[in-house]
User: Fold these one by one.
Assistant:
Number 1:
Amino acid sequence: MKSYNVAIMGATGAVGQQMKEQLEKRNFPVRNIVFLASSRSAGQEITFKGETYTVQEAVPESFEGIDIALFSAGGSISEKFAPEAVKRGAVVIDNTSAFRMDKEVPLVVPEVNKADLRLHKGIIANPNCSTIQMVCALQPLKEQYGLSKVIVSTYQAVSGAGVNAINELKKQSADFDNAKHAEASVLPVKSADRHYPIAFNAIPQIDQFTDNGYTYEEMKMINETKKIMHDETLSVAATCVRLPVVTGHSESLYVELDGAPTVEEVRQAIANAPGVELMDDPSNQVYPMPLMAAGLDEVFVGRIRADLDNPRGFHLWVVSDNLVKGAALNSVQIAEALVGEQII
Amino acid sequence: MKSYNVAIMGATGAVGQQMKEQLEKRNFPVRNIVFLASSRSAGQEITFKGETYTVQEAVPESFEGIDIALFSAGGSISEKFAPEAVKRGAVVIDNTSAFRMDKEVPLVVPEVNKADLRLHKGIIANPNCSTIQMVCALQPLKEQYGLSKVIVSTYQAVSGAGVNAINELKKQSADFDNAKHAEASVLPVKSADRHYPIAFNAIPQIDQFTDNGYTYEEMKMINETKKIMHDETLSVAATCVRLPVVTGHSESLYVELDGAPTVEEVRQAIANAPGVELMDDPSNQVYPMPLMAAGLDEVFVGRIRADLDNPRGFHLWVVSDNLVKGAALNSVQIAEALVGEQII
């Protein structure tokens, strides 16, 4: 069986570590692996399939001989090094937002638009975490009934903002009685002027604001969904909110279909979809929750209900681990699809 | 100035205490006050305007001579004692769901439908907490531009489930590393078969499920909103979610208007509305959050955005203290309106 030289760029980050674990767990055909990071993290040790590797500082030459490079070290690092990796013959699977809306770059969730991988010119973008789990739930509905409108409100975990955000939540949570005056220096955005406590709070800002009053996170969900689903006429609206949850994004979705299936037909479409698990039994209080989805691969869908006024309208509750299917797993699935479809 | 004999039924509960504080703070014209509760809580002492009162066990005769009785002791207590109070000449302002959808009972948020108070036959119902703050934000939009559709996803605090839920959140929050296996015995519903941890989680169930897959909390928001706003044709959909927040409900609202105002016009309508405070300056990261709204009277509205596809569509983020405007304050405002409009 053919095997591949793989590099992980940003190997010491939360997503980089998940990428390594997914490669191990899914037994991806790795010949050699290289762990890359900034000079600050270089020298750390990482164990992969029982062998110990030293993290190297990334330089353009790091990508010599690499077949597949998984990037998750921030947008500016991707902008700098992804072209260098491509120049040296690697296919880059980039988990940052640097190239996602580039017309030359496929933006891929394998369950939805695997065929787009054939159009790649060296770089393939991994969508935003909150987009990935949403389109996994939307795709079976679009395929079977047509999809015209999506309104999503998110309930997002702090792990999407990195390990500092997790530590801040942990520290603040320990001081229940001082919640209102807890020190904050990470959320909503590390580089922003103002920081707010996340413990016992809900912050309706993820990423910076754009000029139209939406945040970048909200605009990512809107624009990426249209690109992945190949439908510029699809109406998408998003409100993105950060919660005191460690890992696992939840989404309250309202969808309008072209057809008017029964709730049971919608449930069946979700149950039969790849990568998605139906978890919907109200009479037994069965529905997905982030605390239970953390660490798991699937996109869980429950609380499926018919809108009471619109026969084409449905409500769904979608939960998935934002570091797994929302990031590392999807990147590794893209690599698997490149191999499986003989694109690489 | 005329003054009134007031009773608080459920005086030792979280809302009962807030009712007492609102009566003090707003200087409601109280002649005599009686604090009532079940036999279990009788004998406790409560201070009102510097004087100490002993909580009495409620019996039908407790309401002799009472002008206004504020009830917040659970639906079955209201069903039993409210008619007894009315029989003795009191006007009952009931904070439970017992009579809310009764056609003979006005369901009132003074900023929205104060005129309905004139139709009372002894009992006036205080709406559900999540409904009250929503209709306060919707009313100015309906008045100025007409309102056809509302889709709401809630982010609700545990204080709505009582002091046991607050204690459970506090205990679970102290054990960050054990979140997934935390002991739970209160949420989502005390009497339900299954309980789930709320710390570092989001539970998409508030109250029990009805047969159509919606919870009672969701159906309350849908039905109460139509009743308060006098519009059975208004399309309302709700998804209600419990969060690890102590006090303060947040709501992500999508509304469709009959007209197509600018975002600035929508902001002005909100800014000018009674009981509502505009808190919407994205460039300075100003938006409402539950941790900051706790303990305050207002309904705060921010994140106002035009839908990108529908010129009649707008998104709003609405936050208020569920124990204050969501319960005790609204009940006391109803009492004030009864006095002010000379209905009592």
Number 2:
Amino acid sequence: MTMVDEATHALTPAQARARFRAGVSAPTSGWAAGYTQTNLIAVRRDWAYDVLMFCQRNEQPCPVLDVSEPGDPSTKLAAGADLRSDLPRYRIWENGELRAEVTDATPYWSDDLVAFSIGCSFTFETALAAEGIPLRHVEQGRNVAMYTTTRKCRPAGRLHGPMVVSMRYIPAGRVDDAIRITAEMPAVHGAPVHVGDPGALGISDLGKPDFGEPARPEPGDVPVFWACGVTPQAALMASKPPFAITHAPGHMLITDRRDDEYRVGRQ
Amino acid sequence: MTMVDEATHALTPAQARARFRAGVSAPTSGWAAGYTQTNLIAVRRDWAYDVLMFCQRNEQPCPVLDVSEPGDPSTKLAAGADLRSDLPRYRIWENGELRAEVTDATPYWSDDLVAFSIGCSFTFETALAAEGIPLRHVEQGRNVAMYTTTRKCRPAGRLHGPMVVSMRYIPAGRVDDAIRITAEMPAVHGAPVHVGDPGALGISDLGKPDFGEPARPEPGDVPVFWACGVTPQAALMASKPPFAITHAPGHMLITDRRDDEYRVGRQ
């Protein structure tokens, strides 16, 4: 699969969202370069407090950038966006089971759904690339690799589950830089949660991610793991709320916010 | 009033909390130097979602550092602390009206109260002082001055109100440094919301703060305004939930967390 080409890279966020609204479906890594992408999770109002508390207690995987009023499919992060249709792919969940993957969630929407927009590690990829740190999954035209770990999130009400991480192979000599750069962006997962041995997170095979696609390391690369906004989906699977809509992993909302806005002290 | 002396400055957080539990009541600025202090707001469970949403939507004045389960007076921020008694002074609110100011809130507690611990600008005072920026209110032994502004917070459900700010006089030549230092601490209000003319925030007289005490400027000082954790109290007054307990302005919870923990990229 080829995700990134000159054309999608140069799109404005509104142009990208219009393509997805029209039915295009692709992972969004590399699209509308320089603009922040977000994870989506929408639950019924009677579960919204649990989700918001879960996010507050697990800010590194679940940094909340916006929350809608019940039923409102708009977001302050993207002018004119419709959260029901402007992401390239959605997952529909019932009682913790994945029921459907669709490109338009409008038929599943209801007026008691509360939508959470959660920060995404794609945001800091711009900053990493700007300092010359290679991104193997982008070079190789793949979705980023994500893994469910054995680290438990702090529960909140009825919501509990494991932390999910994204992994990037980083040249050993640039790991310090990658830590420094991402530490400055706490609203989009911040510094890595782990560097090196995948076994420490309970990951047995980097070649078999739970979400996304595996990337090939280059000689001298080290695996570096960041908390991931797919964590709420793992919590849905574990906690089984009656209904939820999420983005499909890697298929994000492209917002109007510049990635730089989430870099502390650099605005 | 003299708030700061060698003895209180050198106390551990647990020792300070024990004094307050025993009935001592004083503003906490300068106590247990180097440890983070937090604002308290506790509301009934049926208002907790509104408060949490309000804080998410107004993160600069209301950065949430911890939320309790309903009825639980403990916090992960301070081992063994009892939120009902370990702050030096509390305010009891009914329908948006201040009903009582007490040194022990235990008689007012109930098992459906959810307690929010919110970041406080005292946290960044350590960082300012460490870089040689003078703190006039500390020098003068006063509580920091706080003002209700004409800036509106983004509403959330039933909760709405104005932003409250704390003000510190800073030597003109150090304002840039103060901005840089506090911008690195977004979990405790971050960079100033305004520098200079108080009228731009609708403040008519710096000598008459709405909370706390006025400080005297030194020649060449400029007023610098930071978003303030008393903002939820202004929202209580405006939004009139049936019941709430808060700290009294300036009379904070002293946590076990080091101020440095809230400095991005410096851990």
